[in-house]
Amino acid sequence: MRAVVVNSFGGPEVVEVVETEAPRPGARQVRIKVAAASLNPVDAGVRAGVFGGAGERIGLGWDVAGTVDAVGAVDAAGAWSVGDEVVALHYGAVKPLGTHAEYVVVDADAVAPAPATVDAVHAATLPLNALTAAQALDRLEPAPGRSSLLVTGAAGAVGGYAVRLAAQRGMAVTGLAREGDEDFVRSLGARHVTSDAVADREFDAVLDAAVLGEPALAWVRDGGRYIGVIPHAEPASVRGVETGAVEVSADGARLAELVRLLDEGVLMTRVAETYALEDAAKAHALLGEGSVRGRLVLVP
After folding, report:
1. Which CATH number does 140-245 carry?
2. Per mean pLDDT, which range of 24-38, 143-157, 167-181, 206-220 is the poorest?
């Protein structure tokens, strides 16, 4: 099968498509024939060596939508059958094969039924970003009467899901986004949208999807909460503000809830462009330009 890998670190030019043996599922695992797999900033980080793994062949890709092609032991992976259409998060930065391939093996409990209302290309954009947003919000559950939330990067993939999910939970959401994205962020449920006018100590909590760090921490009230999206990169606590960062985890049951919300119209997906697997390096180059709205998706 074909798979996208890096054998050395660097820019888009180090991305390779290689021929390799299709993986086999073990106990509590399923193999998915990949229909689509989105490209995320974390893939660029892996490619650049941010997560280590020097000297190893590293497979790229975390998100997948496709069809179950094989299962491990029946008693372990009995929830899934060959032919099931599914989505999944294949967690892990340094792994020999990712989802940017023709086949991928994932843990059975990381899998959820595919959405019924969107195609595989759109479905592939859901797992990593929606799970990150949902799990970050879990860390920010407000005390009664204290529910004001600022989401930075509110027009982005994680930030957009965070705005929508927080609004659904009844939080008073303000979105920080670039000029031109205001209407989109409001459509997600933000009560207020701003591109720069944020007062210090204004919010009970900040979800820093744009990775602003200390400037975003200044917008949290004394004793409030700050959550980032890069583990161990959050700023130090000040003024009694609880700081932390979400490390997304594969959770098929939670992903199934997010799929349900997508099918009900609560969540929406955005695809910027699709690329053939052979053009993965071109997709990385476009991602690096930083102006993409929606996800780039690889189609084997």
Report:
1. 3.40.50.720
2. 143-157
Question: pLDDT by residue (tens digit) across 201-244?
Answer: 889 999 999 999 999 999 999 999 999 998 888 899 899 999 99
- CATH no., domain 2-127+252-299: 3.90.180.10
Q: How does pLDDT run across 88-121, given as a tens digit for each residue?
A: 999 999 999 999 999 999 999 999 999 999 999 9
> Which tokens go with 87?
């989505």
Beta strands, E only, the chain: 2-6, 15-19, 29-39, 58-59, 63-71, 85-89, 103-107, 111-113, 148-152, 172-176, 192-194, 203-208, 220-228, 242-245, 271-276, 295-299
Q: Reduce the DSSP state of residue 130 to 3 states and report it.
A: helix
Q: Where are the domains of the chain?
A: 2-127+252-299, 140-245
Strand blocks (E) in 128-250: 148-152, 172-176, 192-194, 203-208, 220-228, 242-245
Q: In which element (H, E) is residue 285 found?
A: helix 280-289
What is residue 159's three-state secondary structure? helix
In this structure, the chain runs to a length of: 300
